[in-house]
Write a structure and sequence with these properties.
Number of helices: 3
Number of domains: 2
Strand content: 35-45%
Largest sheet: 5 strands, antiparallel
Order of helices and strands: EEEEEHHEHEEEEE
CATH topology of the largest domain: hypothetical protein PF0899 fold
Helix content: 10-25%
Structural class: alpha+beta
CATH architecture of the largest domain: 2-Layer Sandwich
Oligomer: single chain
Shape: flat
Length: 179
C-alpha cells in the first residue's frame, strides 16, 4: 500500500521545505517536483519527498486521504471526553471499524499518529476492532459473514442477489483509556 499525506509548505530552503500537517512539522525534499512550489502550496508527501502539488480545494474537500479528517475527529472526541472527566491525557482509543466502512485502518492509524502530536492524545495508541461484512439473505433467510471481503455481490449460501447487509459498515469509538 502506498500512502501520501497532503501537507502545506510553510518554508522553503533550496531543495527542502518544511511542511505542516495539522500542526505537526517536518522537513521534506522537494527535488521530485517538476516545478518549485511556493510557500502556502499543498503537496502530497511520501517517504520524505513531496511527490505532487495539489489544490487547496482538493485538500479541504477530503479528496486526498479522508482518514485525516476522521483522525482529527477522533482526537477531538478523545480530548473532549478527557477534559469532561477531569483527566490530563489519553492513553488509547479503541475504534470499531467495519470492513465495508471505506476506511483503511493503516491510513487512519498513520493520520492519527501524525496528528496527535502536541495534543492531549500525544502518547495515545489507536486500537482497532475490525468487524467483518455480514448480512442476511432475503431468499434463503440464512445469515452470512465474509471475513476478508469489503463487498458482497451474492449470498454465499444460495447465490441470490437479494440480501441485506447487517454489519461491516461500522465506524465508532468504543472505548477510551484516559487518566
Amino acid at each position: 500500500m502506498c500512502l501520501a499525506v497532503p501537507s502545506k509548505i510553510i518554508s522553503i530552503d533550496q531543495e527542502t521545505a518544511v511542511i505542516d500537517v495539522y500542526g505537526a512539522r517536518k522537513e521534506v525534499s522537494i527535488k521530485l517536483l517538476p516545478e518549485t512550489p511556493q510557500i502556502g502550496d499543498y503537496v502530497l508527501i511520501h517517504a520524505g519527498f513531496a511527490i505532487q502539488k495539489i489544490s487547496t480545494e482538493a485538500v479541504h474537500s477530503g479528496e486526498y486521504m479522508h482518514e485525516s479528517s476522521l483522525a482529527i475527529n477522533i482526537i477531538d472526541i478523545a480530548r473532549d471526553q478527557c477534559r469532561e472527566r477531569g483527566c490530563k491525557s489519553v492513553d488509547s482509543v479503541t475504534v470499531r471499524l467495519g470492513k465495508a466502512s471505506g476506511v483503511l485502518p493503516e491510513s487512519l492509524e498513520f493520520a492519527f499518529n501524525a496528528l496527535k502530536e502536541k495534543t492531549i492524545a500525544a502518547n495515545a495508541t489507536l486500537v482497532f476492532e475490525i468487524i467483518p461484512l455480514g448480512g442476511i439473505c432475503q431468499s434463503c433467510k440464512k445469515e452470512f459473514e465474509a471475513q476478508d471481503a469489503s463487498f458482497i455481490l451474492a449470498c454465499p449460501h444460495c447465490g441470490s442477489t437479494t440480501f441485506e447487509i447487517t454489519k461491516g459498515r461500522e465506524m465508532e469509538i468504543v472505548s477510551l483509556e484516559i487518566h
